[in-house]
Amino acid sequence: MISPRAVSIENVSHRYGKRQALDQVSLAIDPGEIFVFLGPNGGGKSTLFRLLSTLMSLQQGEISILGHGVRSHKQQVRQQLGVVFQMPSLDKKLTVLENIYQQAALYGVTGQTLHDRTELLLSKLELADRRHDIVEDLSGGLRRRVELAKGMLHSPKVLLLDEPSTGLDPAARQAMWRYLEFLRSDQGVTVVLTSHLLEEAEKADRIAILDQGKLVALDTPDALKESIGGDTITIRTRQPQGLIERLQTELNLAATEVSEFVRLETEDGPGTIRAIMQVASDQVDAITLAKPSLEDVFIHMTGRQFTEEVKP
Description:
Elements: E1 7-16, E2 19-29, E3 34-38, H1 45-52, E4 60-65, E5 68-69, H2 74-80, E6 81-84, H3 96-107, H4 111-124, H5 140-152, E7 158-162, H6 170-187, E8 190-195, H7 198-201, E9 206-211, E10 214-219, H8 221-228, E11 231-236, H9 240-251, E12 256-258, E13 261-266, H10 269-280, E14 286-290, H11 294-302
Parallel strand pairs: 3-8, 3-9, 6-7, 7-8
Antiparallel strand pairs: 1-2, 1-4, 4-5, 9-10, 11-13, 11-14, 12-13
Helix pairs in contact: 3-5, 8-11, 9-10
């Protein structure tokens, strides 16, 4: 018998009035993956997260979690899910343990099972010596760990995290990722998170890049970067369109303007730079050469920088 996909998304679209938040998104996530939905603000990540976590009803398309459709088996789906929201859900006036026990009451986790799971979570999340601390006295990173403990208390098979690194310093972010790797390797949990951080997405098994509600790329981080191939050259110039025309006319190089920079892809970066400087040095203020990054993947797919605002 073939095991069901951890997450299956088929032709999902969603609108807020006239705004198309998601547009025919389809993909599947295998059990045991660490999967990132990557995109800028307004890309559709939060809407998809709400649909996956059953906070909103589907308008169009189908979503299933471990074979259970969110339309017809919402309760079964929720039993399989652990959810950590971007906005804190902790009671700041309670201790770490009291917040965990509050979550346990919601899911009916009691007795020895509650004790064993609590001790494991406190240990793995390095919270054992903070169990009696009031949450409002904790740092942002420690609060995030308590959120993770709550989300995993009922031993879900799929963990959803919405922008989990928000407000975390680098050390806290690394600790969080160590725990996510433990969940995948030791507990067999499928981890699905949204992020607008390119460096965070590099840690995933696979990435889905969302932009303006559309799925524009889906693959491993390395495969996405290799899909561009060669080198990327970025040129700062006061005359972007004039330089683009000159490169096309004199060197037969196809370049584009991205956020007031001129950008092109080439198989021979050093050789291309020499050629550019020979014919157009008077228009070049600065020039850089780099191997393709996830930022380059996004530019390649959308024609703009990852952080660039979309004009309505």
